[in-house]
L-seryl-tRNA(Sec) selenium transferase
Amino acid sequence: MVDTRRQIPGTDRVLSEPEVAREVARLGADLVKRAVHEAQRSARDDEIAPGEVVERTLAGLPASASAVRRVLNATGVLLHTNLGRAPLSEAAVDALRHAAGTTDVELDLRTGKRGPRGASVLRALTEEVPAAGAAHVVNNGAAALSLAATALAQDREIVLARGEMVEIGDGFRIPELLTATGARLREVGTTNRVRLDDYRAALGPDTGFILKVHPSNFVISGFTADVPVAALRELDVPVVADIGSGLLRPHPVLPREPDATTSLTDGADLVIASGDKLLGGPQAGLLLGREEIVQRLRRHPLARALRVDKLTLAALEATLRGPRTPVERALRQDPEQLRLRADRLADALAAAGVPATARDSAATVGGGGAPGVELPSAAVELPEHYAAPLRTGEPPVLARLEQGRCLLDLAALAPDDDDLLRRTVLGVR
Ligand SMILES: *Cc1c(COP(=O)(O)O)cnc(C)c1O
């Protein structure tokens, strides 16, 4: 019997192959060695020939030194929380690359002295939202809420309507976050109705602020009433509006979604929003409002613990200043164009023997924005058994399962990705 083990190339020999050595420079030796060991094991188990070890090593390498992988979002949910919410624009990705090294994030290059951190992104925010006297950025919406609660209502009361006591997802409950800061909650109204007088009756010397929370992931319908910011301003205590999704101005496609400009002009003293929802930027918490309040937040000791890094600042500024974001383009795309893409894709797949058909579909915003809103879309329909191999394929494709069918909804996918999607589907057969 021949001992094939002898013929299996050793680790050092595989690593010295020029193609493998290049990957060591890109990914680091540890990750490449892991792939080599895996390939050697396959050769020992006779799954591959000893001569295929180099090839198998290269095939087994990750796309990057991070385990995070790119996933094609074919769910039709524009902001999919499990897929990292908003995909960044090219401009934002480019800004990330520039900011990744040493940068002038906190240096005034003219004077050589320390400069205000992130000054240019704050300027971009107040230019986009002139109704805001000042702006501050923290790590996410939850961080923004906790900073506001700590700085403005510690040992005091936050007045909040019962119908706005929201759980965002994964067990994150806004009321619990607020009380964790040392603020007390003063609940007003019922699940479905609250009146201005309910708020008025709850106010007292202990009131820190009134919090208005956008029910961003559910809809209460029927016998309902809530009190808009424009009415709450009459009560003469600070009004903080957590609008969630990060629209800076009213949006033509989402007329019922609150926006920062309107909330501020209606009389909110402070607006809180996320950066990675409808704004289409990186994870961030935006605080926009009256200068004196924003200054108090900025100077609070907790602000340092919630501070964003230079990468977030760069990507956020590029999102604000740059061209339309992928989220914005997805919101405004023409359903007929989507249907054309679905037809083309389904035809190409069908010609290759895949039982694919094109159909109209309904996409959603998802990720804490515009609950109940359906956006006309188009999809390629496949048998259900395609879903799992697509999800574990390369690149992974996340489809939507609907009535026993696997739908590839195109609303959240850039047209440039259609060809990759087609090749990936062909590859899973
Ligand atoms: C999403 C959301 C939050 C939490 O924001 P994160 O950026 O996820 O921390 C808070 N409030 C509302 C209304 C939201 O929609």
In short: The longest strand covers residues 374-383. The pocket of pyridoxal-5'-phosphate is lined by residues 140-142, 166, 168, 213-214, 216, 242, 244, 274, 285, 368 (CB under 6 Å). Residues 128 and 248 are 7 Å apart (CA to CA).
